[in-house]
Amino acid sequence: MLTPPLVSPTTLDAQLFKSILPDFPSEAEFVYWSKMLNLMIAKTGAMLNGDKLGLMYSVVGPDNFQLVQHASDFNAALNLLENQFKKSDKCKLKDKTALEYGDEIVMHAFVSGLSNEKMCQWLLESDDPSLDKLYEKALAVELAIKHSHKT
């Protein structure tokens, strides 16, 4: 015998019932979905009998279900999804000025113009890839090479 769905479409607005989390959502899509999920929980609270995780399972979609299927409770599952789809402030890119891009372009032109491939690779792997630092390192290596050939 088939069991009825956890939440009947007739109890929810059509827009809310269609709020399935897309696979690989953007941060904006995830935030929207999360808000809709909380609204669905608020509208169906008595029907759920406390089974918010069951409702989440019904609206995450099959690929996202793989992320939350072993979560111990609703909040743990929501945290897993937030960690997957919401960007932290550390990950957000800052705007660069034309001067900063100019320095970066000159730095790449400088490194790519070097004739010694090993030096190019070494400079590109540098911890501090600023133009001034790369120039100082390249100059030091060049002087060391010239000095070693003289001795």
Plain-language structure description:
With 151 residues, this protein is mainly alpha-helical. Helices cover 64% and strands 0% of the residues. It contains 8 helices and no strands. Helix 2 packs across helix 3. It is rod-shaped, with a radius of gyration of 28 Å.
| Average pLDDT taken over every residue | 76
Sheet having the most strands: none
Number of helices: 8
Class computed from helices, strands and strand pairing:
mainly alpha
The radius of gyration is 28 Å
Give, in order, the helices and strands: HHHHHHHH
Task: Please outline what is shown here.
The chain has eight helices and no strands. Helix 2 crosses helix 3.
